[in-house]
Amino acid sequence: MTILAFGVQADEKPLLARAFADHDLHALDVDLGPDTTPLARGHEVITVSVNARLDAGVLRDLAAGGTRMIAQRATGFNNIDLPTARELGLTVARVSHYSPYSVAEFAWTLAMAVNRRIVRAARRTREFDFRLDGLLGRDMHGATAGVLGTGKIGEAFSRIAHGFGMRLLGWDVSPNPACTALGMKYTDLPRLLAEADVISLHVPLLPETHHIIDAAALRTMKDDAILVNSSRGGLVDTDALVDELRRGRFTGVGLDVYEAEAGLFYQDKSLEVVADDTLARLMTFNNVIVSSHQAYYTREAVGQIIGTTLRNVEDYLAGATSENTLVAPGLSRP
């Protein structure tokens, strides 16, 4: 069977080719969206990246072109119109989990980079400027880590914080016993935001979590807090964050995701004028690091994502479902 893969990174391509050796897989570096949907015509099975746009219009075009199965190489699925997929009889699957350490370790990388001013220091030393002015950080030992979402990734983040000797505060719909065993105290969101020195987001993007870090939440945080988002961009009201940064607040902010990243992240825009004023403003703050949704990007995690994607495709071909199935097979295969 010929399978079309959208949004394939250069490092990912040989891994996909090896995993799908028994299939005829064609890899494209462009993401799926309204302008690229025609490329899928005639392909029963496609696989897409996290930045694919799978709204009702795209899904209808895919179905009209013969697509019957979509395998997303990501955990989140807020970009997929599942009711429309169900209406059209499209099978949709995701990767329900992969290495939580990849994201948790990267979240701490961002936190420590802004805390210890690593980017600024590296830029200086490249120019043989070895002054310490403006590079003063703080110990994590004895500080408070606030973890929003204590699933597998939040737990891994908390274990690292525990290793630093930090006090742990958690917020979730249900406590994780493993985090409780680390000494985590679960509390309401206002208290967590008010007391935490480092706040890391590990909740899914749902209607109830959209802009969970809004203007009011940001004002609740300490002036010298560190905020890290390695989950989904829509968790943070970016315009409100820019307003607070303009007031000189926060030791640092590390963002691996951005609420308007689709069409920007995973692409080279260095020779173009980027019209996103909010993102451009974010880039001007020397206490902000924006990375390109790369927290998951380790050999281990990518290998697990590709392996699960292969199993999802083979489940579809066998008429089977699993915990990864978001929309079960509907219309009969041609």
Automatic annotation (TrEMBL):
**Would I find Oxidoreductase among this entry's keywords?**
yes
SUPFAM superfamilies noted in UniProt: Formate/glycerate dehydrogenase catalytic domain-like (SSF52283), NAD(P)-binding Rossmann-fold domains (SSF51735)
Q: Where in this chain does the record put each D-isomer specific 2-hydroxyacid dehydrogenase catalytic domain? A: 9-325
Domain D-isomer specific 2-hydroxyacid dehydrogenase NAD-binding, residue spans: 109-295
Please tell me whether the keyword Oxidoreductase is annotated for this protein: yes
InterPro entries (UniProt xref): D-isomer_2_OHA_DH_cat_dom, D-isomer_DH_CS, D-isomer_DH_CS1, D-isomer_DH_NAD-bd, D-LDH-like, NAD(P)-bd_dom_sf
Which keywords has UniProt assigned to this entry? NAD, Oxidoreductase
Task: Identify the PROSITE patterns for this entry.
Answer: D_2_HYDROXYACID_DH_1, D_2_HYDROXYACID_DH_2, D_2_HYDROXYACID_DH_3
Q: Which family does it belong to?
A: Belongs to the D-isomer specific 2-hydroxyacid dehydrogenase family.
> What is this protein identified as?
2-hydroxyacid dehydrogenase
